[in-house]
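# nightly structure sweep
# worker-07 picked up a monomer target from the shared queue
# config: single-sequence mode, recycle default, output format = structure tokens
# input follows
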Amino acid sequence: MADAPAAPAGRPGRVKSDAKRKAILRGAKAVFLKAGFGDTSMDEVAARAGVSKMTVYRHFGSKEDLFAGVITDLCNMIVAEELERLFEQKPEEALRRYAQKMIDIVFAPDTIELHRIVIAESRRFPQLGRLFYESGPHVCIDVLARYFEQNQRNPRFRILDPLRTAEEFLELLRGYGHLRVLLKINKALTSREIEVRIQGALRHVLAPAH
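# output follows
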């Protein structure tokens, strides 16, 4: 028997499906943060999300796919359609707002804890590191690199290699402060530290305004 056609965008069926997906991602993040990747079960995710296990598997074919979905969802908080509007602004304002978004997400407690899970369990689950990188950092780097590529000939920018410049920009935002938070030496960046990091990243890619 053929599958029923998917509900068109905007129809109740589609809205309901999207709501279930979001509930699954919320439930999965809570369970991953509590139990780690290895000890997370799809049954517990389904219970936390208030859906059946079959529904979880309908949206995410495996636990690895589900973990990637959680990371992608976090990254989408930065690279959603809002980012396109953000990059329509003047370079300094666009990059400043992008930088602040990155710091907010990268240093968020949930993101830090997910990062710890990946590091702790990468020996048992080697594919976890690639999933984490490709679903999160790689997406964010790629979006910024494409923006730099579009502006490579703009005299306001100092860009030789768009991809490398994007990676350097983001690394200036993270720095050793991120490592200290991961290791629980510090809890978070101070407002002063955040501003210094953003200013340093902007100086790295923008020529002084005349």
